[in-house]
Write a sequence for this structure.
């Protein structure tokens, strides 16, 4: 450890984190443009985010094994190499299927980077300094979402969306070369045995569960495919948990949940990711596809909130070291819940400035939570469980983010269809008042367009159907934000039970974990 150059080590790792997070935030604003260009629906395009996060979630459980087996240096070099290769595939993708494959290859690299960084921080910084250290790390990580949406908006307006992936290639290669030159191992290598059945159980379980949530958007919750996927996913996850609990050296240590603060903060972190990541996909669809704002305007709207998160990150870290996580978590989740609920009141003419103000306040609330809650849970664990706790926490957050994204997009799609059906039931030709109103609208439109009167009723139907579809889509998005509010309230409930503990598992709950 004496020979490790901390500055160089952290610089290489943080650059990798910045590049991978920047890539994800670039995609969000470009989603509506990619939907139109690739001719796919919202439930299909969301797989670019959900598959990415799912692969992250699948890889994180084996991160502890990979670090012990290959070391930090070799693993990070592989991660940046895979990420760069995936960027090449995405940039050259001729269709959605190849683009999705490229995203999965990217995720194979990105999924390893964050657990690596968290493990390095646990090694380099003692518990009493982790709040400030995580806060400084947050500046770098949050800077990516700050510049990502605006940069993405400008690129999509002036160039092809493929440029979003092209610019990742040189960034990834430069960091890869720096890693080869500067990075050293901080842990001793060993040869642990990979739990292949456990890995397969977790992969199939998480994958089929997420597939079920995603397909519900197009096939409905009662579909045989959806029900079967959810049941199979639940059974494989149960088998995975049972195997890990009965193994002497598990791949993912579920016994970390015997530590009460860690358990509570993991639940809160999962709720935050479900509500945040799903909403980040819905908002650009509303702004661009429904309201007609440009990608650049959409990106600029998200900029103040992201910048505020960057400013607040070190402040939140310093406050955490002084007052603990509970006051920050409670206040942050109250702000997040209120602003998320306000997003459920969007209309076809909600002012741009109002949406920006709401989003900025929502990000302020989340800035009090993102790093502090996770750090509070990890601080309760003894040193030997640090890497397992880190892997478990990140796995739960990533999988929750994937499921949250799929769930909220599904709610949006299903509810939009429901609302459109209601309009169709109410607006029928059997209603004489409606029929007369349609005829009058059609006559006015045909006169303005210089078309024959016979085309009037068809024009009126098309115009009214378009307006009804737009309003149904807005109502569907509003319903999804209501669900996101409920998820946030679950996190708020648990935040009241977060308590401050002595580091290293010395709290009473930690003693009970080993029966001592």
């Amino acid at each position: 450890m004496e020979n490790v150059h901390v500055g160089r080590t952290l610089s290489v790792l943080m650059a990798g984190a910045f590049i991978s997070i920047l890539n994800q935030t670039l995609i969000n604003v470009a989603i509506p443009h990619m939907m139109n260009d690739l001719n796919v629906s919202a439930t299909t395009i969301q797989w670019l985010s959900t598959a990415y996060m799912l692969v992250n979630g699948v890889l994180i459980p084996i991160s502890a094994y990979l670090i012990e087996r290959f070391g930090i240096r070799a693993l990070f070099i592989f991660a940046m190499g895979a990420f760069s290769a995936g960027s090449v595939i995405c940039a050259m993708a001729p269709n959605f299927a190849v683009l999705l494959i490229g995203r999965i290859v990217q995720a194979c690299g990105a999924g390893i980077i964050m657990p690596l960084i968290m493990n390095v921080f646990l090694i380099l910084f003692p518990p009493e300094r982790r709040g400030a250290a995580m806060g400084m790390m947050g500046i770098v990580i949050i800077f990516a979402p700050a510049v990502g949406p605006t940069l993405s908006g400008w690129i999509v307006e002036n160039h092809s969306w493929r440029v979003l992936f092209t610019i990742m290639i040189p960034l990834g290669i430069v960091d890869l070369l720096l890693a080869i030159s500067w990075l050293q191992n901080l842990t001793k290598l060993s040869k642990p045995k990979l739990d292949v059945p456990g890995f397969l159980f977790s992969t199939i379980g998480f994958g089929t569960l997420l597939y079920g949530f995603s397909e519900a958007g197009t096939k409905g919750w009662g579909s045989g495919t959806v029900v079967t996927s959810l049941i199979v996913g639940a059974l494989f996850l149960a088998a995975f948990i049972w195997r890990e609990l009965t193994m002497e050296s598990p791949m993912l240590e579920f016994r970390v949940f015997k530590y009460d603060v860690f358990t509570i903060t993991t639940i809160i972190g999962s709720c935050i990711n479900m509500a945040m990541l799903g909403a980040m996909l819905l908002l650009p669809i509303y702004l661009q596809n429904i309201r007609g704002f440009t990608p650049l305007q959409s990106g600029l709207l998200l900029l103040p909130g992201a910048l505020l998160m960057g400013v607040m990150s070190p402040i939140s870290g310093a406050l955490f070291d002084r007052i603990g996580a509970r006051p920050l978590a409670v206040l942050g989740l109250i702000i997040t819940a209120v602003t998320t609920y306000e997003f459920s009141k969007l209309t076809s003419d909600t002012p741009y400035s109002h949406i920006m103000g709401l989003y900025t306040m929502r990000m302020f609330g989340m800035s009090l939570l993102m790093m502090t809650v996770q750090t509070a849970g990890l601080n309760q664990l003894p040193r030997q469980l640090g890497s397992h706790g880190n892997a478990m926490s990140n796995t739960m957050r990533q999988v929750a983010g994937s499921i949250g994204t799929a769930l909220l997009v599904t709610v949006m799609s299903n509810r939009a269809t429901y609302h459109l059906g209601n309009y169709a039931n109410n607006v029928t030709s059997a209603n004489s008042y409606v029929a007369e109103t349609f005829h009058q609208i059609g006559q006015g439109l045909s006169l303005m367009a210089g078309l024959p009167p016979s085309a009037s009723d068809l024009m009126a139907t098309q115009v009214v159907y378009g307006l009804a579809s737009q309003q149904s889509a807005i109502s569907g998005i509003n319903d999804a934000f209501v669900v996101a509010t409920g998820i946030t309230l679950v996190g708020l409930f648990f935040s009241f039970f977060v308590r401050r503990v002595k580091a290293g598992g010395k709290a009473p709950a930690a003693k009970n974990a080993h029966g001592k």
Observations:
- The domain at 6-194+251-419+469-513 is CATH 1.20.1250.20 (Growth Hormone; Chain: A;).
